């Protein structure tokens, strides 16, 4: 039988690992563990600005539907839901993300779409045109 403190420590370890990965990937520098998750306004185990409610489970068996129902309640329909499951005695990098099939397919579609180039601001556009003119003048002088 696992002690409560040991169980909480394992959960904390996974939450800290997920926060570290989110920060390292440059997704959200402000990501952090959400102490007492589910009790306040901010739900989920990991605070983030990614539009996802993240629930971390460090359990021997796949938490399955019960964990997904929990994260769905916590998201209150405002964010997408993900359960991060880590099986003890394996590397934290072997954790598995469980998401809704439609969210998965949306991610695949987004990855396949070409990256759009944002229209430059008026100031940037002016500077680029000015730079283009200066380059033309330099080329003329070199000829």
Would you give an account of this structure?
This protein is α+β, with helices and mostly antiparallel strands and 143 residues long. The chain has four helices and five strands; from the N terminus they run αβββαββαα. The strands form two sheets. Strands 3-4-5 form a three-stranded mixed sheet. Strands 1-2 form a two-stranded antiparallel sheet. Strand 3, helix 2 (64-75) and strand 4 form a beta-alpha-beta unit. The chain is elongated.
Quick overview:
With 143 residues, the chain is α+β, with helices and mostly antiparallel strands. The chain has helices at 4-24, 64-75, 101-112, 122-142, and strands spanning 32-33, 46-47, 52-58, 80-86, 96-99.
Largest sheet: 3 strands, mixed
What structural class do helix, strand and pairing data support?
alpha+beta
In order across it, which strands form the biggest sheet?
A: 3-4-5
Beginning-to-end CA distance, first to last residue:
83 Å
Q: pLDDT average, as an integer?
A: 87
What percent strand?
A: 15-25%
Radius of gyration: 23 Å
Counting H and I runs of at least 4 residues, what is the number of helices?
Answer: 4
Tally the beta strands: 5
The general outline is elongated
Helix content: 40-55%
Q: Write the H/E string, N to C.
A: HEEEHEEHH
Q: What ranges have pLDDT less than 50 throughout 5 or more consecutive residues? A: none
What's the structural blueprint in terms of helices and strands?
Elements: H1 4-24, E1 32-33, E2 46-47, E3 52-58, H2 64-75, E4 80-86, E5 96-99, H3 101-112, H4 122-142
Parallel strand pairs: 3-4
Antiparallel strand pairs: 1-2, 4-5
């Amino acid at each position: 039988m696992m002690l409560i403190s040991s169980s909480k420590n394992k959960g904390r370890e996974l939450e800290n690992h997920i926060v570290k990965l989110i920060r390292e990937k440059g997704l959200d520098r402000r990501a952090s563990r959400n102490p007492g998750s589910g009790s306040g306004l901010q739900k989920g185990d990991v605070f983030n600005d990614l539009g996802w409610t993240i629930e971390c489970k460090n359990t021997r068996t796949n938490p399955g539907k019960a964990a997904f129902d929990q994260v769905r309640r916590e998201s209150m329909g405002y964010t997408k839901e993900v359960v991060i499951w880590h099986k003890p005695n394996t590397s934290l990098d072997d954790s598995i993300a469980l998401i809704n099939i439609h969210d998965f397919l949306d991610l695949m579609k987004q990855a396949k779409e070409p990256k759009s180039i944002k229209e430059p601001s008026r100031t940037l556009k002016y500077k680029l045109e000015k730079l283009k003119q200066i380059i033309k003048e330099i080329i003329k002088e070199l000829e």
